[in-house]
Design goal:
The structure is a homodimer. The first copy, chain A, is of the alpha/beta class. Helices cover 33% and strands 23% of the residues of chain A. In chain A, the strands form 2 sheets. In chain A, strands 1-2-3-5-4-6 form a 6-stranded mixed β-sheet, with helices on both faces. In chain A, helix 2 runs parallel beside helix 9.
Chain lengths: 282, 282
């Protein structure tokens, strides 16, 4: 992988890399924040999956997460939201194609060659960064926002043991019931809705996914709450399945990074606890 | 003034306003973060002056300052960097005209009608926000970045008593010796360099400005350090005049908001102390 940028922040380094992805068949970019503790030894990593239209840039610029990561000794691994490039299929819409990979493995032409974001995020990227960077192999947690909150939930639900903990900000909890999810699933996965179940957090829990504690923050002033996000569907199936869900309806908060910045510290502390990180700098 | 946006963040509110400026003769936008403490009573304010090409948006999105402001009970007042609009003179260059007001009162046509940012920032805006918002009248500090660091320094140096404290990130310490400063001063103030002295921090101290403690952070990997910023000129005149300067050369940091985000907490704590704010939330 090619190291294309290094910016010092909170005594650690915010790095950007590019590599030729064998999973997505294109050049992919991602960012990794390495906290100061990574100079002395390997550290655990929290993966951040971003929402529609984002690249790796939005989170690293807007969320204010690096301060907490530096305090807690956590690396932040921040992938892009889709394959990219002139050869990669795209759509005119903001919620389909490049910037909208939805963290699935596409099965339909012409998308299937490149849109393999599920395997990219859960397999190729961890293997790459745990080989090349001072990260403790296998010691990972995952979180994200909106489409990326959906991504975090399905990755953790589908891969017992791959992540120590999972959380999400305003996730698309039940994409089969949301316009965003239906548009992408139909395009990437085809018309057979049974194939969509494998990428729907609410349905995965309903179908018997292995229980793990879920932390979800959702703003009550989020403009997408009613039509796209469906946290109450998630709450309903978690209750039915005795799944531990901490769903915090945050009064007055919207869908923006200002909402994320307010609560990212609590999420990283939650993950640090699961990763058994001892706070080494404050 | 018109309240055009309110976003909840750290239990306070990030607001954006527009008003017809009588100083700049155009519609001006600015942001104010009101911490949760402002619900119970009036709070002190820290003014943030941004750098070239910025609006009020950069700082509020990228600096991560609202977390500290919420902890310390400080409002953040974030003006634009120039007058704006189709009727306002502009230039093709990024470092002249709209986005590059340089915090001076222009004397040269056609700039002088609108480019009165010094009076706007030190007079009109404080009077407006202290009338309309829950801010303690007269209890203000000021800081900023690059062109805005220059602005913060000259506002504090030229107006003894107007600000309780001042700090700056990578300020243009001696604009008369920098290409950015020379270009703007020549355009806005004319060819007589004696008129430039009134807006040059290094020269103001040399000419006998009233002493007040200065806190300046400067990254050693800042691409603009040698040609544009001249912190050592500031250091030299402060030493000669027994002016208290804390100049921190921060090893490896660049000119970006990642640098600002790393140290904004320490700057706000410095201002909170000068404003005698008791920490009420942590």
């Amino acid at each position: 992988m090619e190291h294309i940028e290094a910016i010092k922040e909170f005594d650690g380094w915010l790095n950007r890399y590019q590599h030729d992805s064998v999973t997505c068949h294109c050049r992919m970019a991602f960012s990794v924040y390495l906290p100061p503790q990574a100079r002395a030894g390997k550290v655990p990593a929290v993966y951040w999956l971003s929402g529609l239209t984002c690249t790796d840039d939005n989170f690293r610029v807007k969320a204010g997460a690096q301060r907490y990561a530096a305090e807690l000794g956590l690396a932040l691994v921040i992938p892009d939201t889709s394959p990219r490039g002139a050869d990669v299929p795209d759509a005119e819409r903001y919620d389909l194609g490049q910037g909208a990979g939805f963290y699935v493995n596409a099965t339909q032409a012409p998308w299937s060659r490149h849109y393999q974001m599920y395997d990219y995020v859960t397999r190729e990227l961890p293997a790459l960064v745990e080989t090349e960077l001072p990260l403790i192999p296998g010691l990972r947690s995952i979180t994200g926002h909106s489409m990326g909150g959906h991504g975090a939930l399905i990755c953790a639900l589908k891969e017992p043991g791959l992540y120590r903990s999972v959380s999400a900000f305003a996730p698309i909890c039940h994409p089969m019931a949301s316009g965003w999810g239906q548009g992408c699933f139909k395009t990437y996965l085809g018309n057979n809705r049974e194939t969509w179940v494998a990428y729907d957090a609410t349905r995965l829990i309903e179908e018997g996914a292995t229980a793990m504690p879920l932390l979800v923050d959702q703003g009550t002033a989020d403009e997408f709450l009613m039509e796209q996000l469906h946290p109450l569907s998630l709450e309903r199936v978690c209750a039915a399945r005795n799944f531990s869900l901490t769903l915090r309806m945050q009064e007055g908060y919207d869908h923006s990074y200002h909402f994320i910045s307010t609560f990212i510290g609590e999420h990283l502390a939650w993950h640090a606890k699961a990763l058994q990180v001892v706070q080494t700098k404050s």
